[in-house]
Amino acid sequence: MKVTIAYLPTEEGETALAALLQLYPGAKVRKSERHPPFKHIYLTTKKAGNPCGDGENSCITPLDVV
Question: What is the pLDDT tens value at each position of the chain, 66 positions in all?
């Protein structure tokens, strides 16, 4: 999941970041000040759950594909 927070220096963007980091402690954070007067915070998390799907045999490759 990717989250972007855009805020002015007078606003509380860091407070929002602290709250999101409590929910997603393993998230990667990148900060940017490329577009003044706005500041941007980019938060990226890993996808939760089984990457193969919900089915019991969804990760098994059929024999005719191999």
Answer: 899 999 999 988 889 999 999 998 889 999 999 999 999 999 999 876 665 666 565 666 666 655
Determine the Cα–Cα distance for residues 29 and 51; give it in Å rounded to an integer. Answer: 23
What's the chain look like in SS3?
CEEEEEECCCCCHHHHHHHHHHHCCCCEEEEECCCCCCEEEEEECCCCCCCCCCCCCCCCCCCCCC
Residue type for 27, please? Answer: A
Structure tokens at 17: 């970041």
Task: Mark out the alpha helices in 1-66 (DSSP H runs).
Answer: 13-23
Residue boundaries of the structural domains of the chain: 2-44
- Give strand pairing partners of 39: 7
